[in-house]
Structure formats: structure tokens, C-alpha cells
Design goal:
The chain is of the alpha+beta class. The protein has helices at 27-60, 90-101, 108-122, 124-143, and strands spanning 2-5, 9-16, 63-70, 73-76. Helix 2 packs across helix 3.
């Protein structure tokens, strides 16, 4: 199981055992079997997940979302769509509007989300390097001197 968190959401993804298929099963057969296992897990655990979320959300003051991974398949059952405000200049808005005009997105919000996913996909190593660097900075700060406490 993996749990990812930010200030708005706790995302819990269960890991399921890969299905045992006959030797020589095609990639499509493997994918279908994995998806079936995830679908069964989703239905079998629905009531428990709802109960857990109802208790956890007020306690953690975050939305609890769920998913499952089986082999190479990953499905998120629920996710939080959190609004994010930004100010964009004309050239940036034109990029979003081009994505809308081309049918890639239905709105500026969806176009911006698509753009963020694209950066995450193509720059995953660099983003992970940034996250690792920030973790190192936090560790160094925690070991550093504390304020004198006199104001």
C-alpha cells in the first residue's frame, strides 16, 4: 500500500497480487486480468473504504481518495479535484486556448491540468531531483540552530 499526501488530500493505493496466468499470455490478457482484479477489489472493499474515509477526513482535515495497483495496472477510484488559482499573461492564455480549440481540453482549467501532467510525465526525473533536494534542505534546517527565543 502507498499513501501520498498533500495539504488537501490523502491518496491511498492498495497493492494487489498479480494474477497467475498461463505461460505465454499476451500483454492484453495480462492487462485485462489485472483490471478485473482491481475491479473486484474496488467492489469488495467499497463499504469499508467509505467508512474509513468518513472517520479519517474530519480527523486529518483532508479528502481521502482511493485506488489500487495490480502488476502494471493502476486505477484511481476517487481523487480530489482541488481548484488552484493562477494569473496568466496573454501569451500563456493563448496556449491554453489553443489546446481548447484543438480539442485537447474543454476548458482553460482542463488545459492547465493537461499541461501540468505533461510536464510531470516528461520531467519526472528532474521533479524527483527537486523533491529530493527539498527533503535534504528540510533535514539540514532541522539540524540547524534554533532561535534564541528572546524577542
Amino acid at each position: 500500500m502507498t499513501i501520498e499526501a498533500d495539504p488537501d488530500e490523502l491518496q491511498v493505493v492498495g497493492t494487489l497480487a498479480s494474477p497467475q496466468l498461463a505461460d505465454g499470455a499476451s500483454e492484453e490478457e495480462v492487462r485485462v486480468a489485472e483490471q478485473a482484479r482491481i475491479s473486484g477489489f474496488r467492489e469488495d472493499t467499497r463499504h469499508a473504504r467509505v467508512r474509513i474515509a468518513e472517520e479519517a477526513q474530519p480527523a486529518f482535515r483532508r479528502t481521502v481518495s482511493w485506488g489500487a495497483q495490480c502488476g502494471g495496472s493502476r486505477v484511481l477510484f476517487t481523487t480530489a479535484g482541488v481548484p488552484v488559482m493562477t494569473r496568466l499573461r496573454l501569451a500563456d492564455r493563448r496556449v491554453l486556448d489553443t489546446l481548447i480549440d484543438a480539442g485537447v481540453a474543454r476548458s482553460r482549467s482542463e488545459a492547465l491540468a493537461w499541461s501540468v501532467r505533461l510536464v510531470a510525465q516528461h520531467e519526472a526525473d528532474w521533479i524527483q531531483e527537486l523533491r529530493d533536494a527539498m527533503t535534504s534542505v528540510e533535514e539540514v534546517r532541522a539540524r540547524g540552530p534554533r532561535g534564541s527565543g528572546s524577542d
